[in-house]
Amino acid sequence: MKGLFNLREIPIVKINEIVSEALSFKKGEKSVSYLDKKMATLFFENSTRTHYSFIAAMLNLNITPVQVNLEGSSMKKGESLYDTIKMFECAGYDGVVVRHTKDNYYSELTGINMPIFNGGDGISDHPTQTLLDLTTIYEEFGYFKGLKICIIGDISHSRVAHGDAEIMKRLGMKVSICGPQEFLDDTAPSMSPDEAVKESDIIMLLRVQFERHEKNMGLSLTEYHQKFGLTKSRALKMNEGAIIMHPAPLNRGVEIANEVVECKKSRIFAQMTNGVFTRMAVIYMVLEGML
Asked: Vertex 17, ends 12 and 20: CA angle to 5°?
């Protein structure tokens, strides 16, 4: 299979190349046009940033995007994911972006010869989110090795946390996690939120998935914000030069105070901008056989 599924088997040199290509697109140093190509998007979970930044990336590359209406597709008649995607290959599409609720859904797609781009699978991986996070960090600091990042929130259910932590460790970053005990797993060593803001170069906040924890979290929204959220007072204790990140969507006033979302240290909306250029780089490199 061709495409981008996860980052675990991609060498560090290639990760750095993707980041470099993304920043080249952003700076206007690279221009690529694929007027004869078309790609489909199949999203089995709701998405704003990933879905529409992939579409923006396609449009910037002059690729025609086609959003698949899953409610009107033959999958509602029982057609398999493989057969659905095989149809797009047979119809002459040049790639497909898939977000799915199932971990490693792409393992069932052996035999597809059209590039597949993983837009997020279950709680395992979200490779283009990790890559745009790395692009944002490199744009800010100019390096990775030795940087300290603390990921705060619902670690156990977060494909962002799992994907980011794995590659960041390989890049030589020092990763820690923070959150209520029921949110944590063995992704990295844990610390308190007050320790995190004093020691970290990057605070990465995650959306609290209350749809998963409403009955057993044991904390109200207000209590979570006070105990684990990036409040205004905690933000003021961050190191000089430290930055705030969040993959979004945001729960303002829960994991992050409203007045902190667009403060001087925040790179949350810069991540969204970089998502387009990072996805342009990934599409370009896959279509050119570089990835």
From this structure: 130
Domains of the chain as residue ranges with CATH: 3-125+272-287 (3.40.50.1370), 127-268 (3.40.50.1370)
Please classify residue 148 by burial: count the beta carbons closer than 10 Å to its beta carbon, then call 0-12 exposed, 13-18 middle and 19+ buried.
middle
> In sequence order, which residues have a C-beta less than 8 Å from that of residue 124 and are 6 or more positions away?
6, 103, 104, 159, 162, 163
First to last CA, the chain: 12
Residue in the block written with tokens 């994907």? 163
CA–CA gap between residue 186 and residue 173 (Å, rounded): 17
Given a cut of 70, is residue 12 above it in pLDDT?
yes
Write down the H helix ranges in 142-220. Answer: 159-170, 193-199, 210-213
Phi, psi for residue 176 in degrees, rounded to 5: -135, 165
- Cβ–Cβ < 8 Å for 63, 39: yes
Tens digits of per-residue pLDDT, 215-258?
Answer: 566 788 899 999 999 999 999 999 999 999 999 999 999 999 99
Q: What is the pLDDT of residues 40-72, one digit of tens each?
A: 999 998 899 999 999 999 999 999 999 998 887
